[in-house]
Structure formats: C-alpha cells, structure tokens
Specification:
By secondary structure, this protein is α/β, with parallel strands linked by helices. It contains 10 helices and 14 strands. Strands 4-3-5-14-6 form a 5-stranded mixed β-sheet, with helices on one face. Strands 12-7-13 form a 3-stranded antiparallel β-sheet. The protein starts with a helix and ends in a 9-residue tail after the last helix. Belongs to the LysR transcriptional regulatory family.
C-alpha cells in the first residue's frame, strides 16, 4: 500500500464528506478511493469512517487522524509551493566556491551587479585554490580553472586564459635569456603547489609538437598571486595564467621567457552537480557570469 497516497485520499474524503467528490478532486475513480480507504483502515486496524447509504461521518479515530493530517498536508503543499517558486524566481542562499586569485581579481567586481539584479538572493562566496567536493561540502556552484580534465560535474565554459612562462626583466638581465625549454634546467623556477604536472613544464613548439622540460624550484607556493610577486621580485621564472599576469605583461613588468613556445590554454568553468531541476538562483548566476565574460576577456585584450 502507498501510505502517503492513502492518507491523501482519506483526507480528501474526510474534507468533502463523499467518496465521489473526493474521486473528482483527485481525478480518480470512486472505486480507487474506496480501495485506498479500506486498505488504510486495515493497515491501522481501526475504522476511520462510518458509512451509510445516505451519510458519511468520521469516527473518533478518523477525526483525530484527519486533524493531524490536515496540518501535515498543508505543510507539504506550502513546501511544494516554495520549491516551485525557487525554481522560477532566484531567491535564497547561493553558496559559491572559486579560486583565490581569480575570485578577487575578476569575480569580486561582479557580485554587486548580480545582487542588484536579484535582491532576494544571499551570496555566500568562499575562495580556495583547493578543488572542493561541491556536493559533499554543500556548494551550489563552483568556478573552476581547468585544462579539460575529466569531471563528474556539469560545467559551462565562461572564458579562456593563456598560460605564459615569465620572468622579470631584471632577472633575465642577471641570468640570461632562454632560447629553448631545455634552458630552464639552468634557472631557478617558481612552483605552484596545485600544478598536477609538478616539476614537468609542458610546451608546444612552433610546429605544435609537445615539449616537456623538468625544472628546478627555488620557491613554492599554493597561490598564483604569490608566485607572481616572487617573479616580479626577480626570484626566478614562473608560469601563470594571463588572468593573473596580463597587466604585468602589458606594462613590461614581466616578459615571456620563451616567446617561440606556447603552453596549453586553460578554461574558466562554472561547475554544478546536475542539469536536472536546476534552481533559478544557480541558473541565473551561471548566465550572469557567462554574459560578463563574453568576447575576448579583459586579461587577454
């Protein structure tokens, strides 16, 4: 027996005082209504309704059950209405995870505009370069920096960024310029802790052929802005996305060390657990971010 359905059917009968009227309200047959009520009475081991050819009335137990169910079913109806409204109108708390540098430089300026547009949304933004488990840690959405690796999440591409190996002009003046990736072996490099390739730096030559070079680190950090500052200070060579070092390249504070070689681009993604039953607040945020990064991104202009 479907007990939830049986309770719903019994409540409809009790509220309308008729099996036929309850059947009409539930868009089913009187026979089905009778069956559900009979099964519920058998399950509970008590009579809920007094039946006669002219009249239908609640027993004492039936009246007590109906009173209890009425409040519960009202709560369910209200909850369904709230859930439906949240899928149409952006509202409620929206938890977002994003990388530290990208979050500060390129996402923070966007939040006020979103909140002006959708004032019923409460943003909760957590910045971390660690790849979080969205479902396990309770996030609605994550902005990810990715080279296209496998993921169990649904993701929408927001923008792209170039990766460039760079150093300060002062460092290159003191230690010499580089001609090929093999020259990196004689230089001090600045490492990024979350780089999955660690000591192996990957390039493509002018013909598009991959070149892998092992490097020696003199400095490690888990934050891109810290690596940038170290490079600006002349500590060594690093590679970073242009969303962090784009302005430095334009101003000449940092220069490419291997201009004839390129590194793989990276994608900026909006990732969320599933496309099914996507709430309005997540859907509107993903659309808002995608629109904000339309065209050539500011860091590569």
């Amino acid at each position: 027996m479907d007990r939830l359905r049986a309770f719903e059917v019994f409540s409809a009968v009790a509220a309308r005082g008729s099996f036929t009227k309850a059947a009409d309200a539930l868009d089913t047959s009187p026979a089905n209504v009778t069956r559900y009520v009979n099964e519920l009475e058998a399950h509970l081991g008590t009579r809920l309704l007094n039946r006669s050819s002219r009249r239908l009335s609640l027993t004492e137990g039936g009246a007590a059950l109906f009173e209890k169910l009425r409040g519960i079913l009202d709560d369910v109806t209200e909850a369904e209405a709230l859930a439906t409204a949240s899928s149409v109108t952006p509202k409620g708390r929206l938890r977002i995870n994003a990388p530290v540098s990208f979050g500060i430089l390129h996402l923070a300026p966007l939040w006020p505009g979103f909140l002006v547009k959708y004032p019923e949304v409460e943003l909760d933004v957590v910045l971390s370069d660690r790849v979080v488990d969205i479902v396990e840690e309770g996030y609605d959405l994550a902005v990810r920096i990715s080279r296209g690796g496998a993921t169990s999440l649904v993701a929408r591409r927001l923008a792209a960024s170039r990766n460039v190996a760079v150093a300060s002009p002062d460092y290159l003046k003191r230690h010499g310029v580089l001609s090929t990736p093999a020259d990196l072996a004689g230089h001090r490099c600045i490492g990024y802790s979350y780089n999955v390739t660690a000591e192996d730096w990957h390039f493509f030559d002018a013909a598009g052929q991959p070149v892998v070079q092992k490097v020696r680190f003199g400095f490690h950090t888990n934050n891109g802005d810290t690596a940038r500052s170290a490079a600006l200070g002349g500590i060594g060579i690093t590679w970073q996305p242009t969303f962090i070092i784009g302005q430095d390249l334009k101003a000449g504070r940092l220069v490419p060390v291997l201009p004839e070689y390129r590194m793989a681009d990276i994608d900026i993604l909006a990732a969320y657990p599933s496309r099914r039953h996507l709430s309005a607040k997540v859907r509107m945020m993903v659309d808002y971010l995608a629109q904000s990064f339309t065209g050539v991104p500011v860091w590569d202009r």
